Automatic annotation (TrEMBL):
Pfam families: Aldedh
Domain Aldehyde dehydrogenase residue range list: 13-473
Name of the top EC class for this enzyme: oxidoreductase
Species the sequence originates in: Actinocorallia aurantiaca
Name of the protein: aldehyde dehydrogenase (NAD(+))
């Protein structure tokens, strides 16, 4: 049992203002495995005040990027030395299979942190340009106090994508973890303290959406960095728009994997284990619409059903597990609801369905629907579970049209024997990323969404820009 009674605010562990608590429940055993205080508006106010004080009067924004990178480098080293402990915690909270967790829930977040540590030395922090009246110095300054609000599915990665560039820029941060995943945030807070950040630079308040909304609207916050659902993103964007507050929004997706005529089916379908079913299908960029040429439809349907039907479903802590439970009962019910909708819409159940693999734990059978048309709800709405829709297409133009016929534009992939041609097809897909023969994200390349998948980019130098204001200082020649 992981039990915490205080918040990390202003560089110290402080008593909560309220008496509410959040129980963290294991998706595998349904038992309570942790308890933390639930943040209230008053706790948010205190955290914003600490971050404000640290930004307006503390050393952090006034230090050089190299000095900040040194402190961040200490955090990165602690993280690297303890990545397994972080991974284990996220396995317990989220139900992520252990093998994927060490990679996505700990190692990649640490690599992302280290990427920004290293970027300090090569990034152009200021430059000199010839102006009409004389030289102009263009400087980059931190945007201010950042509210980092993030979801439960990849809590460390979605937080570090915000925290690392914000800190390097010189911002101070109030992080609000989801109620499902506060424990990994506590571990990170301990490491932040150990690394020796100045007081108030990083603050954590786990809380629900009401306190989250209070944080977004708080006049002491200069920028909101949000990852979560499109519905919540829209509300947050409205508030930020009214206040002209900077915001980046990383939202939902319904990404398409286009299998071209010449694709090697065995490696393609194997690739979907990660691209489509990572984190038990609870991934914003999961390739859940599988587009197959009509000429190879039967072959693809058979191979896909065999792969998904053969997945090892079970205890996420077991390194042999490929699919674990969903994060919460509510999520299990939501996904089962979509399986029902698929059946009612007339899609053909190829494998999986409503029979639960286990009585205990929030498991759903990995499921594939065939004969799906792109107007069905299972092809249009984000399910956020291990449910794939197989959609036949006539020719390449038709495949690109179907891929782009979505309110979302987050990820995508093209599977082919001809990589150059795959890149040509990927260029036609209107999404923030589109892989060829894989789907992945890298710390040094931008990630984000077109259309209803969001606004702005995280990762890479582009992700740092989102925490900087550019200021021009002209002077006479
Ligand atoms: P959610 O939108 O319900 O919650 C996300 C976070 O925002 C939580 O911390 C929640 O407490 C908070 N929140 C919710 N409403 C808020 C509001 N009005 N004001 C302030 N805070 C608010 O999403 P979820 O169910 O936790 O996560 C799943 C969603 O996240 C999916 O839609 C998924 O696609 C998306 N996601 C997107 C990305 C990406 O990078 N594009 C990555 C991971 C997850």
């Amino acid at each position: 049992m992981h039990e915490y009674t205080r918040f990390f605010i202003g560089g110290d562990w402080v008593e909560p203002a309220g008496t509410g608590t959040i129980d963290v429940v294991s998706p595998h055993t349904e038992e309570v495995i942790g308890r933390v205080p639930e943040g209230t508006d008053a706790d948010i106010d205190r955290a914003v005040a600490a971050a404000r004080q640290a930004f307006d009067h503390g050393p952090w924004p006034r230090m050089t990027p190299a000095e900040r990178a040194e402190v961040m480098g200490r955090l990165s080293a602690i993280y690297a030395a303890n990545a397994q402990a972080m991974s284990d915690l996220v396995v317990a909270e989220v139900g992520t299979p252990a093998l994927f967790s060490i990679f996505a829930q700990a190692t990649i977040p640490q690599m992302t942190l280290q990427y920004y540590v290293d970027l300090a030395a090569t990034y152009t922090w200021e430059d000199e340009r010839p102006g009409m009246q004389g030289p102009v110095t263009v400087v980059r300054e931190p945007v201010g106090v950042v509210a980092a609000i993030y979801p439960w599915n990849v809590p460390q990665f979605t937080l570090i994508m915000k925290l690392a560039p914000a800190l390097l820029a010189g911002c101070t941060v109030v992080a609000k973890p989801s109620p499902e995943t506060p424990l990994d945030a506590y571990l990170l807070a301990e490491w932040v303290k150990e690394a020796g950040f100045p007081d108030g630079v990083v603050n954590f308040v786990p809380a629900g959406r009401e306190a989250g909304a209070h944080l977004v609207a708080h006049p002491g916050v200069d920028k909101v960095a949000f990852t979560g659902s499109t519905d919540a993103g829209r509300k947050i964007g409205e508030v930020c728009g009214r206040q002209l507050k900077r915001c980046t929004l990383e939202l939902g997706g319904k990404s398409a994997a286009i299998i071209l005529e010449d694709a090697d089916l065995a490696t393609t379908v194997e690739g979907f284990k990660l691209a489509s079913l990572m984190n038990n299908g609870q991934a914003c960029a999961a390739q859940t619409r599988i587009l197959a040429p009509r000429s190879r439809y039967d072959e693809v349907a058979e191979a896909l059903a065999a792969m998904v039907g053969g997945l090892a479903v079970g205890d996420p802590a077991d390194f042999g597990t490929e699919i674990g439970p969903l994060v919460a009962k509510r999520q299990q019910e939501r996904v089962e609801g979509y399986i029902r909708i698929g059946q009612e819409e007339g899609a053909k159940l190829l494998v999986g369905g409503l029979d639960r693999p286990y009585d205990r734990g929030w498991y759903v059978a990995p499921t594939v629907f065939g004969n799906v048309t792109n107007d069905m709800r299972i092809a249009r709405e984000e399910i956020f579970g291990p449910v794939l829709s197989l959609i036949p297409y006539d020719d390449e133009d038709d495949a690109v049209r179907i891929a782009n016929d979505s309110e979302f534009g987050l990820g995508g992939s093209v599977w082919t024997a001809d990589v150059d041609h795959g890149i040509e097809v990927a260029r036609r897909v209107r999404t923030g990323s589109c892989g060829v023969n894989l789907y992945g994200m890298d710390p040094n390349t931008p990630f984000g969404g077109y259309k209803n998948s969001g606004l702005g980019r995280e990762l890479g130098p582009e992700g740092l820009e989102a925490y900087l204001e550019h200021k021009s200082i002209p002077r006479p020649a």
